[in-house]
What does this fold into?
Amino acid sequence: MSVQREYIRLRHMLDYAQEAVALVQGRTRADLEDDRLLELALVRLLDVVGEAASRVPMEDHALYPDIPWPQIIGLRNRLIHGYDAVDQDVLWQIVVQDLPLLVTALEEILAGYDAQ
It folds into this structure.
């Protein structure tokens, strides 16, 4: 894969993860129960993060060990194929606890690209 394509995939992961994190700012877990559009938006954003991750070549995954590749891709598959069984507690935990860490890792990786 070209460096440009890899950059684009990583950039998509970052952009969509940041958007998901921004959507929950100032909100509570209870808001997820009451706001169907919030739930749908978060599911879709995580879907895109996972899809972009799945398009980064496997050999490149080793270059970025701070990214939990199998979990991100597995989450995407779970959301798509288990669409009728989204656990809102898990969804909330991922967005408020895990995604900020992913955002930080992706920002560091992409800063390296920008420095080139």
Remarks:
- The chain has one domain: 3-115.
